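CHAIN AND CONFORMATION:

***
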Amino acid sequence: MTDVASGPDIACGRLPAEAYLDNFADLHPPLDAHEAVVEADRCYFCFDAPCTKACPTSIDIPLFIRQISTGNDTGAAKTIFAQNILGGMCARVCPTETLCEEACVRQEAEGKPVKIGLLQRHATDRFLETRPKSFATRAPETGKSVAIVGGGPAGLSCAHRLAELGHSVTIYDAKPKLGGLNEYGIAAYKTVDGFAQEEVDFILSVGGIAVEAGKALGRDFTLADLKAKHDAVFLAMGLAGVNALRLEGEEMEGVLDAVDYIARLRQADNLATLPVGRRVVVIGGGMTAIDIAVQMKRLGAEEVTIAYRRGAGEMKASAYEQELALTNGVVIRHWMRPAALIGAHGRVSSIVLEGTRPGDDGRLEGTGETLRLEVDQVFKAIGQTFLDAPLLGAVPALEGGRIAVDEDGRTSVSGVWAGGDCVAGGEDLTVAAVADGKVAADAIHRSFGL
């Protein structure tokens, strides 16, 4: 066994005040007007645009880029919002490098795609800064009412579309603010200056949407209550559970859920008040693992290590995000899994990682080789799970531990639809959740037979 030794060290305010501002400034500063036009001119405006096909919300990308190139930023924003009402946030957090930009013909030809994400942000930001009123106009009231459980991307998308169609909508959310992961779960340097709430306000400005914040399904109301009160229900509850390491000592102080810590970070008025270990280990290979690792480094942690049980190609985090972690000084150890947590007096002090390799049947097996790292904090980022307990017995059919839905988002329970991360086959992407919400809203509207 290889040992790397030291003692526990957790502290607040590891950095000078100005360092927090620099470290959590906008990851991708927006394009100015000239830069946007120059970048837009790189687009070939493909007729059969592969970038549009790669977008889960089917935004007409060549059209909005052409509109930018002709100085029509407002028209570009309207083209985006017509397909994706959360286009501003998606411009910030979408893995464009694996979606529209990967499909860009310039990427194939020269390895340098058009900066679609930044152009989308340019158009939507300009619109949100200058808009006199909502983007959409509501249809006449239909008299129909829809309950939405969860105010994240899927719920907000569904609510806006339904309100646009003239239905009355009530969003129920357990958190004090709407936004879901956009507000509580995304790295702070990806969405600065309170943008998540600005976008929520923009969506609600369509009218016809009531909000019941701090109200949790299973605690404050039941699915049966919602069905009795409303004509339809859309479940957009996300994934409330966090997968466990299943190791002895997991309950020790210093072993933390990455999702909870990111939420705390996102809501902190002063980042210097957050407890930060000098040596941090993150278990996982997805976006949450990258987000917590990079943010801990930017909060002043000296040594941050990501341990992932498979290779770089199997990580859910994109190659760009992995590179972001590396350039921020994070060490990524592939083919390593946690084998033991060691501590004293109720606090974790070290972690033992075991090497892994694919077995003959494709399953992972341990190599027997171990590495012990002294740690102050261990973050679990090995995926989230759907919790069906709040549904109190009226649980729709599940598939792979999530809600099973048809192509319209309809569940096995009459009058109930679902979308976003809580449904089977979901891609765990903001843009995919937005698409789910819009598809379900249109299906709910058709079900009313109006």
Q: What stands out?
A: DSSP finds 17 helices and 20 strands in the chain.
